[in-house]
Design brief:
6-phosphogluconolactonase_DevB, alpha/beta, binds ligand LXAUTJHC, 3-stranded antiparallel beta sheet
Length: 260
């Protein structure tokens, strides 16, 4: 478990641009060191803001897009192409404008796909895909993602792990079907904490005043069942990327004055 580090940017636009620059460097370094890189994408406003900033960055051409594996932290279980699907939004924000290798892009199943409306089967299939991609060096049933990104909801949810929901107590499965989500749509697929914690780095993204309470609560370590964002950490690094409004309720010792 890595101790959370907090970086605060002036506003959400700067946060998205800085996070995109950070991500490009990370991917380029991983590709230089290991030949390829793997990322887990998040849905939500901040995750999509980062992808849009990446699409606009001239430095995006430094990434070898064909040597990048892309996974998702969660998905809204909706038909293929639905505008609310995290995959659809990621395509619009970035993926349709960069030369990714389709065989290395791993969206979670839609509700009209191979598993139809059986969300448990769809979750099990994703877990099997992750297990197949994990090498012996990973020592777990999921690959050692270079960076796993998570948007933080105003209720402290991450991926589709909501406060007090059964998914927050899952210790065996790496991917679960989520039923009765308090945020629409009610049916979702989500990585669990065991999968999230296998990442080298976990980055939590939060911008806006409506996230301030969630950020302060999660970083005061109340427990992952009550505040799921507090249970998301990476093996080597856990990074909270915030804008000033989202950081506004943090205690001063956690608010690094030097960040801009
Ligand atoms: O529904 C979801 O919400 C969270 C947070 O979204 P935000 O718009 O409040 O930033 C997101 O991280 C998750 O992937 C998504 O499915």
């Amino acid at each position: 478990m890595s101790t959370p580090q907090v970086v605060v940017h002036r506003d959400k636009e700067l946060m998205a641009r800085a996070a995109a620059a950070r991500l490009i460097t990370k991917v380029v370094d991983a590709q230089a060191a290991r030949g390829s890189a793997s990322l887990v994408l998040t849905g939500g406003r901040n995750g999509n803001g980062l992808l849009a900033a990446l699409a606009e960055s001239p430095a995006r051409d430094a990434v070898d897009w064909a040597r990048l594996d892309l996974w998702w932290g969660d998905e809204r279980f909706l038909p293929e192409g639905d505008p609310e699907r995290n995959y659809t939004q990621a395509r619009e924000a970035l993926l349709d404008s960069v030369p990714v290798d389709p065989a290395r892009v791993h969206p979670m199943a839609p509700s009209d796909g191979a598993y139809e409306t059986d969300v448990e089967a769809a979750a099990a299939a994703y877990a099997a895909d992750l297990a197949a991609a994990a090498g012996p060096e990973d020592h777990t049933r999921v690959p050692s993602f270079d960076v796993l990104m998570l948007g933080v909801g105003p209720d402290t949810h991450v991926a589709s792990l909501f406060p007090e929901h059964p998914g927050t107590r899952e210790t065996v499965r790496t991917v679960i079907g989520v039923h009765g989500s308090p945020k629409p749509p009610p049916t979702r697929i989500s990585l669990t904490f065991p999968a999230i914690r296998s990442a080298r780095e976990v980055w939590l993204l939060a911008a806006g005043e409506d996230k301030a309470g969630a950020v302060a609560l999660a970083l005061s370590a109340p427990g992952e069942v009550q505040a799921p964002a507090s249970g998301a950490y990476g093996r080597a690094r856990t990074l909270w990327l915030l804008d000033r409004p989202a950081a506004s309720k943090l205690p001063p010792e956690l608010y690094p004055a030097a960040s801009s």
